[in-house]
């Protein structure tokens, strides 16, 4: 199947401040963002699971909250996107891409899927973790933090609900929207 000519393809977006739609001029496009429609939602209550229809991979879709935002994407979301695009480590949640919906305020982060967070796991466990399991979890959290710190990033919101676990027992640190990178001159 031939690739569509991106220069000729019209992109129409719904206006936020007034009724109607507008067309994005080709010179204002910075590449092509995939649509969230290319993902089949597999949601159960409280989940954000989806299947990428191009790769069949199960991913997590996180909607960027645009509450009361008049001037674009919230700074915390920009910070999280910027940080996660730079980071690649087995114990840090992976941001795969950013996709868009039909409206300017519909932006989604496509992330590696983790089956549960540690907070809900601890809440629903019939018996506590064994000493060996605790050691394994703590080592994975520390490896992720070590990677962040070696890259001059402070998480600032480390809690059990931001520690995610895959079905294979891999612990990944998420919730980097409050993360802060230290610049070379020592300022935040």
TrEMBL record:
Any one GO molecular function term: ATP binding
Leader peptide range in chain numbering: none
SMART domains (UniProt xref): S_TKc (SM00220)
Annotated GO biological process: cell division
Protein kinase domain location: 22-188
UniProt keyword terms in alphabetical order: ATP-binding, Cell cycle, Cell division, Kinase, Nucleotide-binding, Serine/threonine-protein kinase, Transferase
InterPro entries associated with the record: CDK (IPR050108), Kinase-like_dom_sf (IPR011009), Prot_kinase_dom (IPR000719), Ser/Thr_kinase_AS (IPR008271)
Family statement drawn from the similarity comment of this UniProt entry: Belongs to the protein kinase superfamily. CMGC Ser/Thr protein kinase family. CDC2/CDKX subfamily.
Protein name (Swiss-Prot/TrEMBL): cDNA FLJ53790, highly similar to Cell division protein kinase 10
């Amino acid at each position: 199947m031939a690739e569509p000519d991106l220069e000729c393809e019209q992109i129409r977006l719904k206006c936020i401040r007034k009724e109607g739609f507008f067309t994005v001029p080709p010179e204002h496009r910075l590449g092509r963002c995939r649509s969230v429609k290319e993902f089949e939602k597999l949601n159960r209550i409280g989940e954000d699971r989806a299947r990428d229809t191009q790769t069949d991979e199960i991913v997590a879709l996180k909607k960027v909250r645009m509450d009361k935002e008049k001037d674009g994407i919230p700074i915390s979301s920009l910070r999280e996107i910027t940080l996660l695009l730079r980071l690649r480590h087995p114990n840090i949640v992976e941001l795969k891409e950013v996709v868009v919906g039909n409206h300017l305020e519909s932006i989604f982060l496509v992330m590696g899927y983790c089956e549960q967070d540690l907070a809900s796991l601890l809440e629903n466990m019939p018996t506590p973790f064994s000493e060996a399991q605790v050691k394994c979890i703590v080592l994975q959290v520390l490896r992720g933090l070590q990677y962040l710190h070696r890259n001059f990033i402070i998480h600032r919101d480390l809690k059990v609900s931001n520690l995610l676990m895959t079905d294979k027992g891999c612990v990944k640190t998420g919730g980097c929207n409050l993360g802060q990178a230290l610049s070379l001159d020592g300022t935040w």
